[in-house]
Amino acid sequence: MTDFFADISPVKYAPDAPADTLAYRHYNPDEIVAGKRMEDHLRFAVAWWHSFAWPGGDPFGGQTFDRPWFGNTMDLARLKADVAFEMFALLGQPYYCWHDADIRPEGDSFAQSKRNFEEIIDYLGTKMETQGTKLLWGTANLFSHRRFMSGAATNPDPEVFAWSAATVKNCLDATHKLKGENYVLWGGREGYETLLNTDLKRERAQAGRMLQMVVDYKHKIGFKGGILIEPKPQEPTKHQYDYDVATVYGFLKEFGLEGEVQVNIEQGHAILAGHSFEHELATASALGIFGSIDMNRNDYQSGWDTDQFPNTVPEVALAYYEVLKAGGFTTGGTNFDAKLRRQSLDPVDLIAAHVGGMDVCARGFKAAAAMLADGGLEEARAARYAGWDAPQAQTWLQDATLDQIETTVAGGAIDPQPRSGRQEILENYVNRFV
Ligand code: XUL
Ligand code: CO
Predict the structure, then answer these.
(1) Are 244 and 231 a contacting pair, CB within 8 Å?
(2) Is residue 215 in some structural domain?
(3) pLDDT tens-place string over residues 96-138
(4) Is 218 touching ligand 1 by the criterion CB < 6 Å?
(5) Cα–chain-centroid distance for residue 170?
(6) Is residue 6, in this structure, part of any structural domain at all?
(7) What is the DSSP letter of 304?
């Protein structure tokens, strides 16, 4: 036991706990909602990078957090893991996620980094077995080190492509070894700063080739989890190829991988792409590529990826409404890809942030489930499109030709009448649940 969370007790569901007590007031893991335990619906995960590796910097200043495990040695990496699993025990969330670079010290060579990584993976494996915390997904950090400054798979230098392929191979092996339920690819540097020096067509083809190799290797090792692309329009690069869900779908179609790869949709990335979170979720569901979510919001004024814990129940409710409509999570879950504000220095801030995030999600989720059970939105939607159920309208969708339709319309049988979209009535309806 470390003494990092010394004075903090395991957090329990206690809706009537005194205001100054850390408790779940809405997240009750065992409560049955929409036919399943809440824990099994929501599948919460803690992100290793923000909680344990991020030093609290911003573009104008460096480290604000003073963590006893900061540094590039194996002993400190193990201490970091000890504290992480102590936090998981306090929170009781079922999952966590990592990048290779979050959990192991960078070595002087690829081989050294690999040895460090494998040693830490075994260390995590033992802890996971004793404690029961599972891996929602693993991923490779192919964006922080300077070798990736011009991209990973999309780098003009083939040696960086090879380094990235080798790194992904090892991260897939490790995810598989720890029985991870998904493997995520977020292309933070897979894009460009300026077209003046960029061969966009070639770079997209390189990214397609990398993804094909990832899918082939997944099958080779018998990894049954999901392969998930996480879209984001920009930041760190000016333009990223995996801009949003629809763009990723086009990319998957181009390389014949739409049946193999799904998406991990992040709330903040949706906003950066000029969409709502629910738009991205509904699009993924309609295209059959919904996988998992990163539940962290951005500040609406700064227009930047601030990775804050969720705190707006109505937004979260509309998101989970789409998740439930898509049939809920299978291998996916709710990952808090969220970090503290850099002034939130205390160990208790880390716990409170996750407890608050889980409670906001639980409230939103319960509202979404109630709304779906009530069926008001689905009824209104069905009524809005009811005209399409008529046999004549069906022929227009199936085999009628333009000239046949023209004959019908010109004959005077068709006279469309505008009807209300009832948006305010529907907004009032949603407000009853959130
Ligand atoms: C960055 C981001 C990543 C991915 C995993 O914006 O969201 O942390 O979730 O690489
Ligand atoms: Co993310």
Answers:
(1) yes
(2) yes
(3) 999 999 999 999 999 999 999 999 999 999 999 999 999 999 9
(4) no
(5) 22
(6) no
(7) S
Distance from the Cα of residue 371 to its chain's centroid:
24
Both 333 and 398 in one domain: the answer is no
Same domain, 212 and 92: yes
Distance 337 CA to ligand 2 centre (A): 5
Of all ligands present, the nearest one to the C-alpha of 184 is: 1
Residues of 321-346 as b/e, b for ≥16 C-beta within 10 angstroms?
bbbbbbebbebbbbbbbbbbebeeee
Alpha-carbon torsion, ordered 79, 81, 85, 87, to 10 deg: 70
Q: Would the CB of 294 count as within 6 Å of ligand 1?
A: yes
User: Encoding tokens for residue 63?
Assistant: 């480290």
Residue 123 sits in a domain whose CATH number is 3.20.20.150
The answer as to whether 12 is a domain residue is no
Same domain? 402 vs 368: no
Residue 307 Cα to ligand 1 midpoint, Å, equals: 9
379 within domain boundaries: no
CA 434 – ligand 2 centroid, Å = 26
Number of domain units in the chain: 2
Query: Which ligand ends up closest to the CA of 187?
Result: 1
Q: Is 364 helix (H, G, I), strand (E, B) or coil?
A: helix
pLDDT, tens digit, 9 for 90 and up, residues 158-186 = 999 999 999 999 999 999 999 999 999 99
**Ligand 1 pocket, residue 186 CB under 6 Å:** yes
pLDDT(87) > 90: yes
Query: Separation of 89 CA from ligand 1 center, angstroms?
Result: 24
Residue 44 structural domain: 32-374
At residue 304 the predicted structure's pLDDT band, cuts being 50, 70 and 90, is confident
402-430 pLDDT per residue, tens: 999 999 999 999 999 999 999 999 999 99
Whether 102 lines ligand 1, by a CB cut-off of 6 Å, is no
| Pair 407, 279 in one domain | no
Looking at the fold, whether 351 and 395 belong to one and the same domain comes out as no
pLDDT band at 303 (very low <50, low <70, confident <90, very high): confident
